[in-house]
Model the fold of this input.
Amino acid sequence: MHIDVARLQSFCDQELSPADEARVRAHAAECDNCRQALETIRDRGRHTAARLELLDSGSVPPTADFMRTRIQERIETKMEMTNMWQTAFSRKYRPVWASLLVVAVFVIVLTVPPVRALAARFLYLFRAQEIQTVYVDGQKLEQQMQKLRSSPEMAQILSKDLRIEPKGERHEVTIVQASQEAGIQVRKPTGYEAAKWFVQPGSKISLDVDLSRVRAILDEMGNTDIELPPGLDGAKVNFDLQPGVTGFFGDCTGSQGLRAEEGRRLYLGPGCFMLNQALSPTVSAPGGLNIDDVATPLLQVMGMTEAEAKEFSQTVDFTTTMLVPIPRNVSSAETVTVDGVKGNLVRYSGTERFLVIWIKNEIIYSLSGMGDKEKALEIANSLQ
Amino acid sequence: MELKADLREPDTSGEIRVTSFESAFQEHWRRVYQVIYRLIGNSAEAEDLAVEAFWRLHSQMSVDRKPVTPGWLYRVAVNLGLNSLRASRRRSRYEDAAAQWTTETRAGGDPLELAARTEERNRVRSVLARLKPRSARLLILRHSGLSYAELASALDIPVASVGSLLARAEKEFEKCYRSCAPVRSC
Done:
């Protein structure tokens, strides 16, 4: 009786118990056939191992701290919706944003409120003038987004109700080209050389609201108690994303943001800062809507109770304020004076990372990097 | 591979579960990175994909609240690596080869020997990309130090069949390796 291949292989891999190992050894000593089979397996194993070992060379593993920071960034980037006009409607974020748009019932109408009514009687044109941070329950929101990825209702909305027309791909430019393409006077921090400039062309997004689908999605997310204004059914919302300019400054070696355009590589190394600037987006929506009616369900979806949402709606003028959602468990925000206007400084717990965001002359600026408050404001205040 | 006590929490099926993201990270990040690096041979991309694997672990634990085993993490890692390896074989591989060439020539050494080694590595990776996915996963994970029990958990196969599957995978590897031209037309 010979030993089967599985046991011989296990023997070579030292995966047998000492007793079994002794039995195989004893048998092989007496059985030419099994001894030969064992040799073949052993040789083959050595050969494979030697080939696979070649694959280790050239590896430059990062440090544990570096990896841990990057993973944290990845976890937070997922929840961070502040820089989103850059990447918001990339394929990757589409479901998230579509759900925010739809489920929260026009997050963007809310976040980018009206500045002036259009000539058309039933249309508002929205453009943000200032920023207000709002703490959201990141975990809850994330759980709901996960559920939506497999929702058939969401698939319907993405394929039928939501239309996105990108105007081009992100590309590298000079500062002069950046100003031309974005239609703004691009600014840069004093004392820093820009490593690279990129322009993300704008896009147009339109959404036809189908209230029954929105209702179904809210139910699916477990928000059965949220009231939706009936006037929303059939509403058309148009969202005009302006081209955005991204500049990287300082020591950006090792920063992922520079080498890839994909959303998953947003990591900024220490000493490297990223500045985004873009004209604030415009939104048009039916004029008959009561913004507060739409605001309350949105805030509830973001994790507020109904009472909190109503109270918040009363303190904020949605017609001039852009809401920036801040995940409560990983970050904190404070109001600061920056670039001569009121802005917000967001910090991420457990990291050195900061984000300063403000609006000046209808242009939204955001600056991110690593450092303390003084550093963040020093750079933000030095824009020229 | 030894798992630390705080990572071990047998659930009802007797499998080991990851109970803390931090300890899972400390325990496994280096090996996860290596598994991916072996497959794709590009440090920056291996780093990105390792971040991706741990991000998925985090989501699985904190959002879906599903029980996770270290095996699950390695399955994610090896799949990310293999997908990327296949994708990069469809693209040009000159860039990777050039990057590696630069790294190694900077480190010193005989250029001819380096060229031969680069070619050899390309050949091994092209063999891995051509193997049955299960065989490739088994070989990479085994050679990254996973035990039979861990392989069984990672690849969702009975532990009793790991030996015979490994034997088959090594045979398959050898056969494909020998039939491969030294460059990339495997």
In short: The two ends of chain A are 86 Å apart (CA to CA). Chain A touches chain B at residues 4-10, 13, 15, 41, 44-45, 47-49, 51-62, 64, 67-68, 70-71, 74-75, 78, 139, 142-143, 146, 256, 259, 264-265 (CB under 8 Å).
